[in-house]
Design goal:
By secondary structure, this protein is an alpha/beta fold. About 55% of the residues lie in helices and about 10% in strands. A four-stranded parallel beta sheet has the order 5-4-9-10, with helices on both faces. A three-stranded antiparallel beta sheet has the order 1-3-2. It starts with a helix and ends in a 9-residue tail after the last helix.
Length: about 550
């Protein structure tokens, strides 16, 4: 049973829909206040009464029953106390029957969400700075799928620009086909770094000419470009596979080369284009923004031009309900500008474009520069986390089987969780020791809790049954309340574009379960108590595993 829905539909407030009531209901931090609470502050203007008076007035309108055992008004909140035995039985049976699908829904049926994320640059390193966009986008992809949406993951490759002329020039001067073939992305990056260190004015001019040849369809230049691109994709796809990341499209900037002119023509027809110092712009000063540059004075296109074309293409191709752009907050102005341009063009779907901004990730030694070669490769971060995970596991449990495989699951989980636990807009300084701690707010702690639950169930040696009319004690009920909150947590993560909701939930549930585990005997109990606690253990393990899977993190059976 969906208890929030039950309360919302049974509670009648004149002029307030059950959907609005449902959205306002929350779980109080203190169990003594009740199991659900409705804040009445939002109704004060409507009824011209204080929130406290509104709550007091609603108490007498709600009839208690076998589901809702009590209703009270406290400081402007209307609090509901549930039949704890009925709630516990209902939740455990829901998780037992739905298993890994508990918390999923069909709310997104018939709706498409496009997610533009990771968007690596061809021929450049996949470094630690790409971690957030990749795992935030990957988690949102899984969360929306879980809620029934049709999801299109788009890797908007950075495959257009003068840097490719520079790379071809560097290859022509210093490149070796066999070395590049065997060295792949690393060899390409060395050439790019060398060009930026050693190129003179003549080579810079030569690089511009090579880019012009790419644009004009020169076979040799384009063959080299496509080779560099294939080596890049071969490399990044291995990392995506490790991180459990999926894409449905790799249409990058270059894909929209022949799709920009119709957009430019439309801007011109609607008299939105203006000339400024030879360039073509859309004036956004009336909206408090700098002008959006569409064409440079030499006629070259820019990011905004290609993003406008991409947005129109995606709408025409996928007819999206929402289109998300998981891009760092440094691009806030860019997205505000091109979203506004689409709005001025009369695209009513511009309101469905969302910039999912995030903070930067760095290691303790600071920022990175691709041009100077001072980058921290993401594959190196992953390898180090896996190595450290193996060392910790080997120390804690030297007799454990399949330690290499478990260490990889733990290490990869630590990398992903480290970027997802905090609110996405915060800058993150990545710490190996912190993300691999068995204590605290880490994926390792959650994975270890799953392994603990598995161990309890294995030692019991029996398939538990969920007892009827079992009244849970305080520790048991805290776990039940957390399990009840999972479906709403997933929906909140989707509505806020915030995977950290799920990550924090997983830690909170693990903490509640471990407190219960320490304070309540399980295997030495008998009868209904033992059966309930085993069922609670199984349900916790199931939901924790599902929560981590939505973040792209696996769970070892043992640790």
């Amino acid at each position: 049973m969906n208890y929030k829905r039950y309360i919302a539909e049974k509670l009648t407030i004149e002029g307030i829909s059950s959907e609005e009531i449902y959205s306002l209901l929350s779980i109080p931090p203190n169990t003594e206040m009740g199991d659900y609470a409705l804040p009445c502050f939002k109704f004060a203007k409507v009824f011209r009464k204080s929130p406290a008076a509104i709550a007091e007035g609603l108490v007498n309108t709600y009839n208690c029953d076998d589901v809702i055992r009590g209703v009270s008004a406290v400081n402007g909140y209307l609090n509901f106390t549930l039949n704890k035995a009925a709630l516990a039985e209902s939740i455990l049976k829901s998780i037992e029957s739905e298993s890994e699908y508990y918390g999923s829904s069909c709310e997104g049926e018939g709706k498409t969400v496009c997610i533009d994320y990771s968007s690596v640059n061809v021929a450049k390193p996949f470094h630690i700075g790409h971690l957030s966009t990749t795992v935030i986008g990957g988690a949102l992809y899984k969360i929306y799928k879980f809620l029934g949406y049709n999801v299109v993951g788009i890797n908007h490759l950075g495959d257009y620009g003068t840097q490719f002329g520079k790379l071809i020039c560097a290859y022509k001067h210093w490149g070796d086909k066999e070395k590049v073939k065997s060295g792949g992305i690393h060899a390409i990056n060395e050439l790019y770094v060398r060009f930026n260190e050693e190129a003179d004015a003549e080579m810079e001019s030569e690089a511009r000419e090579y880019f012009r040849l790419i644009e004009n369809g020169d076979k040799e230049a384009n063959d080299l470009f496509e080779w560099f691109k294939s080596l890049t994709l071969e490399y990044v796809k291995k990392i995506y596979e490790k991180l459990n990341i999926k894409f449905d499209s790799y249409a990058g900037e270059r894909f929209y080369t022949d799709k920009m002119q119709p957009v430019i023509d439309e801007l011109r027809e609607k008299k939105l284009l203006k000339e400024s110092n030879g360039a073509q712009i859309v004036d956004l000063e009336p909206y408090g923004m700098a002008p959006c540059l569409i064409l440079r004075s030499d006629g070259a296109s820019l990011y905004a031009t290609r993003d406008l074309a991409a947005a129109v293409y995606r709408k025409n191709t996928y007819d999206f309900y929402k289109c998300l752009y998981v891009v760092a907050y440094q691009q806030n102005l860019h997205f505000k500008q091109f979203f506004k341009v689409l709005e001025l063009m009369g695209k009513d779907w511009a309101k469905d474009l969302v910039h999912v901004a995030y903070g930067m990730v760095s290691l303790e030694d600071g920022a990175m520069s691709t041009r100077k070669g001072k980058v921290v490769w993401l594959e190196d971060v992953i390898s180090r986390c896996v190595e450290k995970a193996y060392a910790i596991i080997d120390e804690k449990n030297p007799a454990l089987e399949n330690k290499e495989k478990i260490a990889e699951t733990v290490g990869l989980g630590a990398v992903i969780f480290g970027a997802l636990y905090n609110n996405k807009i915060k800058d993150i300084t990545f710490s190996y020791d912190k993300v691999l701690s068995f204590e605290g707010e880490t994926s390792v702690y959650v994975q270890y809790t799953c392994a603990r639950a598995n161990s309890v169930l294995a030692k019991s040696g029996e398939k538990e049954t969920i007892p009827e009319n079992y009244a849970p004690n305080a520790e048991e009920y805290e776990v039940i309340k957390m399990l009840t909150a999972f479906p709403d947590t997933v929906k909140e993560a989707a509505s806020k574009y915030e995977p950290s909701c799920v990550a924090r939930y997983a830690v909170d549930l693990a903490q509640k379960y471990n407190k219960f585990y320490i304070e309540c005997k399980i295997l030495s109990e008998e009868g209904a108590t033992k059966q309930f606690r085993l069922a609670l253990t199984r349900a916790t393990g199931t939901v924790l595993k599902t929560a981590l899977s939505l973040l792209g993190i696996g769970v070892p059976e043992k640790m």
